[in-house]
Write a structure and sequence with these properties.
The complex is a heterodimer.
Chain A lengths: L11 E5 L9 H6 L12 E4 L8 E4 L8 H5 L26 H5 L6 E3 L4 E3 L5 H5 L5 H5 L5 E5 H7 L3 E8 L2 E11 L16 H4 L4 H4 L3
Parallel strand pairs in A: 1-8
Antiparallel strand pairs in A: 1-6, 2-3, 4-5, 7-8
Chain B lengths: L7 H8 L19 E6 L8 E7 L2 E7 L12 H5 L14 E4 L2 E4 L2 H19 L4 E5 L5 H15 L4 E3 L6 H11 L16 E5 L3 H4 L3 H10 L3 E5 L12 E3 L6 H14 L5 H7 E2 L1 H8 L4 H8 L3 H12 L4 E5 L1 H4 L4 H14 L8 E5 L8 H4 L6 E2 L3 E2 L3 H11 L13 H9 L5 E5 L3 H4 L3 H10 L2 E6 L11 E4 L8 E4 L4 E5 L12 H11 L11 H12 L11 H6 L3 E2 L25 E2 L18 E6 L15 H6 L5 E3 L1 H6 L7 E5 L4 E8 L7 E5 L13 E4 L6 E2 L3 E9 L11
Helix pairs in contact in B: 4-20, 4-21, 5-14, 8-11, 8-12, 8-14, 11-12, 17-19
The chains are: A alpha+beta, B alpha/beta.
Chain lengths: 211, 732
């Protein structure tokens, strides 16, 4: 992850702050209510490693400035709108070849065999065209998924916006922002940052000597 | 004898739970949305605002309700999918009578008259209190008020209680003892102003998901987070200080923190002197509770106990949020008092960003306990044993004080009374004891012993399988009324549709029963608005005073916090700004000794057992186990255990394990995770029958609050074998 293209202060932006996610699945269930992909959610939500932690990671389409999925599509089925949102596949063109699935650096598109086409998050362009927030960011109880102006983000939220990513030799900038934080909370007694206890040794097993 | 007429499998095949996946008519029905109705969620105590979409007298979807200030559109997955209860194939639309061949449709006259005649027969043979009533707090306040009045003036029994008894009554009792009143002292808008948030036994991310955002907003401003829980729940994962205590050791933990506050002089001396009594006694009780001693009892490192005291005690503001994790204990009231002491010692009341709040669990957990269906209370949160309170309610009802029965048995005590023959008949609404009471075998034995059992519900729950008559009532969206949220905010519930088929509004059923019981003068109301007007009148001058509220005001003002004595009164979002609710205006710091839970581990049952919830299910699952996407999210109960414990028993993730307590056993897949203490296992309780976590729990009660000890028991575990099917995929 490197650099950030700063949004205009009154520009409405979509932000993912994975660190706030509680894994409740409201985004998944709400996305599935959409009239365009009835009953199927375009939201990705996974445990990072449930055996170790309850940390989950929600993922929407990052809506790249120069979308890799569109550039590798042999059928020209993936379009980017004037709103800079990268649309789901055009059903009349998509040949379900999965090129986009393999090429997307964020792992977002999926091919649905029963529909014989790729579908992915389209940023709720329809809701946004009516002045409404995207559905997942509307319902998200922890505001891990958030929609608002950059100015509001700066005024109300911790962390730094980032939308510039390096994947090997590929540099990608996106219209969805993620958030970077300093590592860990500050230790109350020592006054310095450290990795949260609940991550390293939640039950203090070494200190207490529980077998 | 109230035995199910068919096998559980046959009843499940006919009445569910079946899974509903799609809106009425399917995704491609092309329904024209006729109207959108602003109301609130059907589930938890946060009562998020939601807009329901209606077509053909069915709720067919939702839209975020951005204008309601508590949640501003936010919902959890339960709220998103709640509408799938509408048009559900399991929905009861006809009254039922049990026959030897199964349940048969009946007329309303038949089931109501039979209920009335059985009530009177049992009472004439065994006394007025031989008929019990159990109600619930997912009902609107109008319904809960009517249930209390039906029991006391219609049936004439002392024995009415409600399922809040299984929820937060320890908090209610603790708040009344220490502060003089049972209500969360703060609006949630105070939370972002706290410089430290202490979450004590509350799995907020899964049980009160929207509250997460309030905590994150506090942390955006730099607040520290302390979490005490035997599991690293999804919020605890991020805590500045995590206190992973052994189940049942809360009083040692909070006592040791109080001692550290005293030792380090992190006290608000002015507040303690001017606004409290009892610091000396409270301090003496914890004097021996050194961090090292507490480490031995709780398993929490002494250094973290010291860190928690520093984090809690240093800042100018702080809020402590607690829930079932400290309340579901045989010393639940003591646990709550220990937490309140941490708030009183540091002066954390009556100011922005300061308070100790219970997060009430049920949709109307607050309102449902304060208008007269609690065994020890009358409307207005009045005490049933207080002669002045009795006289006030009697005058409002137009009866003599002696016409109102005295305090009756609590929920679990009524089941004890069924087993020993003191109670012979039961009317149940809005509760599912076969899932939610501890010790399922005991609960089943009690239901089977009933001479007569009537159930009002909209689905045939596992408890209703035992019913003699079933009266099909109304879903949340089928009747208007009010509920009071965890914050103490009374909000308006709006009806989106009418009950289907021959199902009726609950208020109509209850009033009809009251009239048929010969108490027509007390049940002359025509619908919930007239009931609410009566609640305003009867609660006037009480603790939970609704006199100044109107349905119109509740809608226009996005809810009103009680007390609200007059129509020009703005309501009371923050309590205790000037004085506490005791007569002398002062709070009580009560001494809290530590004692063990009722059952402790031993050689035969060496592992601690605790229960709780998952985000995709609500309470006994009577509603949410019928919703496909919610079951898909977490299909069946799993037994969480630490890899160290699993390896001792040769258990791998997904293996089928048997968990055994003195009361029963359960076979579930193991979920091997580092997010739970190595000496403790956890199973969520939302499922019925052989999947019921409460087959194992201990039916011992807190002597004050009468809450069961769901959160701690002793078990042993055994590996049965490898996964029977892909992990997380439910059995058919």
């Amino acid at each position: 992850m490197m650099g950030t293209k700063l949004p205009g202060s009154d520009e409405l932006i979509f932000v993912i702050d994975q660190s706030r996610c509680i894994g409740c699945g409201a985004c998944v269930t709400a996305c599935a209510e959409c009239d365009t992909h009835k009953g199927t959610s375009m939201m990705h939500l996974d445990y990072v490693d449930r055996s170790q932690s309850t940390q989950t990671a929600p993922m929407v389409c990052m809506h790249c400035d120069d979308p890799t999925c569109a550039s590798v599509c042999p059928a020209d089925a993936i379009k980017q709108g004037d709103d800079l949102l990268v649309q789901s596949a055009d059903q009349s063109r998509c040949i379900a070849c999965s090129n986009c699935v393999y090429a997307c650096p964020f792992g977002v598109p999926e091919v649905y065999p029963e529909r014989n086409m790729m579908m992915k998050c389209d940023g709720c362009y329809d809701r946004r065209s009516e002045g409404k927030a995207p559905m997942c960011a509307s319902v998200c109880p922890s505001e891990a998924l958030w929609f608002g102006t950059a100015d509001e983000f700066d005024r109300t939220r911790a962390g730094t916006l980032a939308n510039s990513f390096q994947f090997g030799g590929q540099h990608v900038t996106t219209n969805v922002y993620t958030v970077t934080h300093e590592l860990g909370p500050v230790d109350a007694l020592l006054g310095r940052g450290e990795t949260p206890q609940a991550v390293t040794d939640p039950f203090g097993l070494e200190e207490v000597g529980v077998s | 004898m109230a035995r199910p007429p068919l096998s559980d499998a046959e009843l499940v095949e006919r009445y569910g739970p079946h899974l509903n996946w799609e809106p009425p008519g399917g995704w491609d029905a092309g329904l024209e949305i006729e109207r959108e109705v602003d109301t609130h969620c059907a589930f938890c105590g946060q009562q998020c605002g939601i807009t329901l979409k209606v077509a053909n007298n069915s709720v067919v979807g939702f839209e975020p309700r951005y204008d309601f200030p508590f949640n501003e559109g936010k919902l959890c997955p339960k709220g998103v999918k709640r509408y799938l209860q509408g048009g559900h194939p399991d929905r009861l639309t006809e009254p039922l009578q049990r026959t030897e061949a199964g349940f048969r449709d009946a007329t309303w006259d038949a089931v109501l008259d039979r209920t009335v005649s059985e009530i009177r027969r049992i009472q004439s043979e065994h006394g007025p209190d031989a008929f019990g009533v159990i109600s619930g707090s997912s009902l609107t306040t109008e319904k809960t008020y009517l249930m209390g009045k039906l029991a006391r003036l219609g049936i004439g029994t002392a024995n009415i209680d409600y399922n809040g008894r299984l929820c937060m009554v320890s908090a209610a009792a603790g708040n009344k003892k220490a502060l003089g009143m049972d209500r969360a002292p703060n609006p949630w808008s105070d939370i972002p102003h706290a410089q430290v948030v202490f979450v004590a036994g509350a799995n907020i991310a899964e049980c009160a998901p929207i509250t997460t955002d309030y905590i994150w907003r506090a942390r955006d401003r730099g607040a520290k987070l302390i979490v005490a829980d035997p599991r690293v729940n999804p919020l605890a994962r991020t805590a500045d200080c995590f206190l992973g205590l052994r189940p049942g050791t809360d009083t040692a933990l909070y006592g040791a923190i109080l001692r550290e506050l005293i030792q380090r002089d992190l006290l608000d001396h002015d507040f303690i002197e001017q606004r409290t009594h009892g610091i000396a006694e409270a301090a003496a009780a914890v004097d021996h509770m050194t961090p090292k001693w507490a480490e031995g009892v709780t398993g929490v490192p002494a250094s973290r106990i010291e860190q928690a005291a520093e984090l809690w005690g240093r800042p100018a503001t702080g809020m402590l949020l607690h829930a079932r994790g400290i309340e579901h204990h045989s010393k639940g009231v003591q646990n709550v008092l220990a937490c309140i002491n941490l708030g009183l010692a540091t002066g954390r009341y009556g100011k922005p960003g300061c308070g100790v709040c219970t997060i009430t669990g049920q949709g109307n957990g607050q309102g449902g306990r304060e208008q007269g269906q609690k065994s020890d209370q009358l409307p207005g949160a009045r005490d049933i044993g207080n002669p002045d309170h009795r006289a006030e309610v009697a005058a409002a009802w137009g009866v003599e004080p002696d016409d109102i029965p005295q305090e009756g048995l609590s929920y679990e005590e009524q089941f004890d009374a069924i087993l020993d023959g003191r109670i012979r008949g039961l009317l149940l609404i809005c509760s599912n004891p076969m899932v939610s009471l501890p010790d399922t075998a005991k609960t089943r034995a009690a239901l089977e012993k009933l001479e007569f059992f009537a159930v009002i519900d909209f689905f045939l729950t596992e408890s209703a399988f035992h019913a003699d008559v079933v009266l099909p009532g109304s879903l949340h969206e089928e009747e208007e009324g009010v509920v009071t949220t965890a914050e103490g905010r009374c909000v308006k519930i709006n009806a989106a549709v009418s009950p289907p088929g021959n199902a009726r509004r609950d208020t109509d059923i209850i009033c009809d029963l009251g009239r048929r019981l010969g108490a027509g003068q007390h049940f002359a109301m025509d619908g919930p608005r007239e009931v609410f007007e009566e609640i305003r009148r009867v609660s006037r001058g009480g603790v939970a005073d609704y006199a100044g509220m109107t349905w119109e005001r509740l809608e226009a003002e996005q809810g009103i916090f009680w007390p609200c004595p007059t129509e020009d009164h703005p309501g009371t979002p923050r309590l205790y700004e000037r004085s506490f609710a005791h007569a002398d205006g002062k709070a009580r710091m009560l001494p809290v000794e530590h004692r063990d839970p009722a059952e402790v581990v031993d050689d035969e049952y060496p592992i601690w057992y605790t229960t709780g919830r998952v985000v995709s299910q609500y309470l006994s699952g009577a509603q949410t186990r019928r919703i496909g996407p919610l079951i898909e999210q977490y299909p069946e109960p799993l037994c969480e255990m630490h890899p160290r414990l699993a390896s001792v028993h040769g258990i791998a993730d997904g293996d089928l394990v048997r968990v055994v307590s003195r009361r029963g056993s359960i076979e579930v897949p193991a979920q091997v995770v580092e997010s739970i203490r190595p000496d403790t296992v956890f199973i969520p309780y939302h499922w019925a029958g052989h999947k019921a976590a409460n087959q194992l729990t201990n039916p011992v009660l807190d002597p004050i609050s009468k809450i069961p000890e769901y959160k701690v028991a002793a078990v042993r575990i055994e590996r049965i074998g490898p996964p029977q099917r892909p992990v997380g995929q439910a059995a058919p």
